[in-house]
Structures are given as structure tokens and as C-alpha cells.
Amino acid sequence: MQPELLIVDSVQTVSSALSDGAPGQPSQVREVAGTLTRVAKERGLPVLLVGHVTKDGTIAGPRLLEHLVDVVCHFEGDRQTALRFIRAQKNRFGPTDEVGCFEMTGDGIAEVPDPSGLFLSRSSAPVSGTCVAIAMEGRRALPVEVQALIVATQAPQPRRVVNGVDASRVAMLLAVLERRCGLKLSSSDVYVSTVGGIRLQEPGADLAIALAIASAVKDQALPATLAAIGEISLAGEIRPVSSATQRAAEARRLGFSGVLDGEAGVLREAIRVAFAQTVPGDRVDVPAF
User: Fold this and answer.
1) Which end of the chain has fewer CB atoms within 10 angstroms, the N or the C?
2) Entry's SUPFAM superfamilies (predicted)?
3) In this predicted structure, what is the pLDDT of residue 281?
4) Is a pLDDT exceeding 90 seen at residue 64?
């Protein structure tokens, strides 16, 4: 009977009599992978090889293993959340910028078909220090809530604590906010985090991070229907980002009626506009910048 699929978990535990050495050694991994490749081609049999990775996330063992296969997929996640992302690092028959979202459950890994709401808080009322960024995970646009907390301190070295965002990028945004927008941040502890454990590593989240920090400084909530997309330069300019149309469309599909992007021009003006976009009937004082 011809099997429909062959899964080897893991390739480092299989050995071949055609090669010396214990399972997992480079010579054994090379021989086993080569044999499985020949069998797959001769029988038209799909083969999935599960392999170990190193501490930095690269495939353990000889690089030949990566060269032999057609597709290399990588599961990533952290122990603090049940979410897992799978990305294609190599694909001979398709794009490598796709991403799949899964959740660890008691019955195993389950697909999350629409993860749009996983990275937003459940607060029913707007809270100061929060803003939603529209991030790109592969070809998928995801809303991610950024939260900021500003606390006055007497310490000579204020704390800068981040979670889910790049610390050096946050430090740059703090400098731009203080120099270009007049926000006093050098004497305050700054805490910035994302919701849901996702990591924002792209510059397109700059504007949302800056707006969340400005909202925390003024202790004034931004509209819950506001999303922000844009990269911020050292001059305080808001630069457009890739896939801006797709991001804006996804934001509006999810109910974000206001989308701030590169059209705002400069950060100072974007902050003013963001605080001015209040719900009709509410009276809010727009902070002066």
C-alpha cells in the first residue's frame, strides 16, 4: 500500500547503515536526508522532516539539509502565550512572506483563521496610553494595540522598559517626541508594551507607539476607532510604509474609521489631529504642542 504522507520526527533521531556515526551527527543527517529525498522523488511521496533548531533559531546540523528540501517552515512563539506563528523561510514553489497563526490547546495545535482580535485589549472604554497599529505579518495585516505608561521619577537614570517592541526604536521615538514635540520625558519612567505577546519589529508601528506615549503623557485617551500607520524620522516627519493601502483597508474592515498615516506630514501635527478626533458630543481639550 502506497502511503499518502511520510512524517519523520525528528530527522536527527534516524540513522542509516550506509554511514558511520551516531544519529544526529552531520554525516548521519546528510545520509538520511539524501535517502528520504530519493524515496520521495521515486514514489511521488510527500515527506515532512521535523528538525531541531539552534538557540538562535537556525536549523541544526549541516546546511545541506536546508538545501535538499523544497520548503523550510519555522514555528515561532514564546512560553508566555499560547500563540504560535509558522513562517516559510524557503519555498521553491511560492512566496516566503506568508504567515500562519496557530494556538496551543489541550488537544494540540489549532488553527486561528482570523487572528485580528487577538492583539487588542477588551476594554469597553478608551484608556489613555493606548493606540492601535496596523502591522504586516507576511501578507496579512493585523491590528496590534500598543500600550504606554509614563511615571514621574526622581531617579537619576529613568527606566525604559519595553515588551514586544524594539528598545532602541522606542528610545529614538522618545528623543523625537521630546525634541520635536516638546514632551518632557527625560525625567519619567517609560513602559511600552504590545497586547497579546506579538512582536512589532517594523518601522510602520512608529506612529502608534508615539501616539500611545503622547496619550500617556497627557493622560488623555485617544478615540477607540483610531489606528495609526507610519514610520517616524529623526526630523519628526511621518514617512509612508509598505502595503499602506492594504493596512488601511483592513483597519476600516475592523471598524477603525480614523486612520492616521503619512498624510499627516509631521508628528506634531499627527498628535494634534489624533486628539482632535473625538466622538461627536464629547468635549475634549486638544493639548497644545
Assistant:
1) N
2) P-loop containing nucleoside triphosphate hydrolases (SSF52540), Ribosomal protein S5 domain 2-like (SSF54211)
3) 35
4) no
Residue 283 lies in a domain: no
Q: Tell me the pLDDT band of 168, cut-offs 50, 70 and 90.
A: very high
Q: Is the same domain home to 152 and 205?
A: yes
Give the separation between CA 11 and CA 280, rounded to whole angstroms: 61
> Domain containing 252: what range?
130-276
The per-residue pLDDT for range 113-129, each reduced to its tens digit, is 777 777 888 776 788 99
CATH number at residue 206: 3.30.230.10
Q: Is the pLDDT assigned to residue 282 strictly greater than 70?
A: no
- Are 18 and 104 in a shared domain? yes
Q: Per the domain annotation, does 95 fall within a domain?
A: yes
